[in-house]
User: Fold this.
Amino acid sequence: MSDKYPSDSGRRRFVKGVVGSAALSGVGVGGAATVNLATQPAGGGGGPTEFVGIQLQGGPAPRGMPYIPIEIEDNGDIRGVWPEAEEVTEDGVTFLQAEQEVGGRTYSTEWFQYCGRQQSEGIQPDADKDNYFRSVAPDDARHDWQAEQLDGGDTLNVEHFSDYETWGNEFGRDGVGKPAKATWRSDDVPEDEIVPVTVIRSTLIEEKAQRDDEVGQWYSAASSRGVIAYMNVCTHFCCVPGYKFSESAAQFDIADGVYCQCHQSQYDPFTPEFDTFVSLPRPD
Assistant:
C-alpha cells in the first residue's frame, strides 16, 4: 500500500486528546475506578462503561468497535437507535446521559466516546441529529456496488442489500455479508466530527438472532432482517478499517472480517464482544 494512513482513515486528522483517549480505552476493568476518579471534570460522566462491540480477533487494538443498534422502517430505510437524554447528578455534578436497555444490555451513547468522539456534536446526548445511515459519496465508497448505485447522502435501505445471500468480491468468500460505508448523525458537522459507520446485511446475523443465549438476545434486539451496524473507528489509533476490502486481510485469516490497514487490528463483525472500557467524561 503506497499510503500507510489513507485519507479516510482519520489518522491524518490526528488531534490532541486522541492519544489520551486511546490509552484510556485500553485500561482494564480493575483499574477503571482509579482512572475515573482522575479524569472527572466539571462536565461529568465517563468512567467504567459496559458495551457491546464487534469482537476483536487480533492486533494492537484494545477492544472491539461498538455496535449501533438499528431499526428498519416500513419503507425499508435503516436508522440507528439513539437513546433519549436525561439529566443525571453524580457527586454533585449534573450532566446529560442517554441510555436504554437493548437485548439485555445497557446501550449508552458513551459507547462512542473514544478517539476524541466525546467532543463530536453528533454524539452529544441531546444533539438533534438525523439517525438514518447515509451513504458516503461514490468516490469514498469502498465497494463497486455502492459507488455505482448510491450518491452521497442517500439513505441506506434494506433493498440495497437484497442480494446479500450471494454478494461477494475478490476478497474472501461470497455470501458472507454485503457491506455499505455510511455516516451517522453527521448532518451539518465539521469533517473531523463525522461518525463513520459500516452497515452489513448477513445470513450469519439472521441465524444468530434465533439462538437462545446472550448472543441471540443481543442480535434479536440490536439487528433486524440480518442488518447490523457499528461505528467504524479502530479503538487502537482511530483509523477507519475495511470490511472485505484489503487483500492483506487474508494474511491474518480475516478475509471475511474487518481489517485495519494501518496497524493490522482484526475484528469479527458477526460475533458480539460483551466487555467494559473507560469512557471519557463529557467536555464542559
Remarks:
- The longest strand covers residues 266-279.
